[in-house]
Write a structure and sequence with these properties.
single chain; 338 residues
Amino acid sequence: MNLRDSRFELLRIMSIIGIVLAHFSLWTPWHLENITAFNVNMVYFFRPFGQIGVYLFILITAWFMSNDIPTFNKGITRTKKILSQVIFYSIFIQIIYSLLMDNWAVKPLIKSFFPILFNQYWFVTAYVILIILLPYINRIMNVISRTEHQYLSLSMILFSFIFPLIGNHITGTMYSFSTICTVYIIGAYIKKYDFTLKNKSIYTIIPVIMSLLYVAQILAYLLLHRLSGIDKLNYGLMPTIIAVGIFLLVKNQEKYYSTKINWLSKNVFAVYLITVHPSINSVFFTHGLNVSESVYDVRIIIIGVVYSTFLVLTSIIIDKTREKAFNFISFLFNKFSF
């Protein structure tokens, strides 16, 4: 029986749904002629959910891993497990795409064999780097004082969140390893010092920050007259505040265990690998579902939730099938190897 805390396993599922919802907003080919300010937030309603989902995933990782100082061998084992899944989907999906589209371009095929080296998935690349460096990051987290941890967190927020916002990319962009590392350090602080807030305060903070994000999108669109670039604030500090708030709400709940939730959450990482594959990421919203011709009102929200949930569940089923196939192959290999 899987006894992992289902509070966080359910949050893991919700975080990946949020990421898929954000891609629904991002990759649907919206027609922007005569679009109103209200329509802007309907079209981009789910955009903040992407980074919130990513940051929640990292906070969950910090909750379960930051107290542990893994050995080098343990770190390699974790990395190999992640890489095997990443490389499988990178190559498999690219080959299927090439067969269906009769497009055997050499460059995408080569990149599919080295998805981390060529940064095919920015979040996965950053996450793998984090897992590799965990023995050293966690060692630092466990020896520094509380004041030093606070100083480190604030410094990383400044360098990783504020600097890129004003065009200073010395530590990377808003979607880089430094961003992931910053959120992990914050998560490690929450875990180490059992940091919490009253639910009443969180219920105030989250709606205020979300409202600011939507107002910022409208103002940016009115100034720029385009969607590209209007969602800068959806990266970095503000979604981190929201993610931390949601995480603390979940943390404040009583522990519980659900075999169904834990069964589903075990495969959510594959949802990202399948739906964000660079060869097909936009296909889901241009061919699988394309509402850009007719829907520009609140129906977008309903359609987005239903379709994104469908993609998540379908991807989980696909990965369950892959898992069974891998286990069967491993069984045969062990049985007939000498």
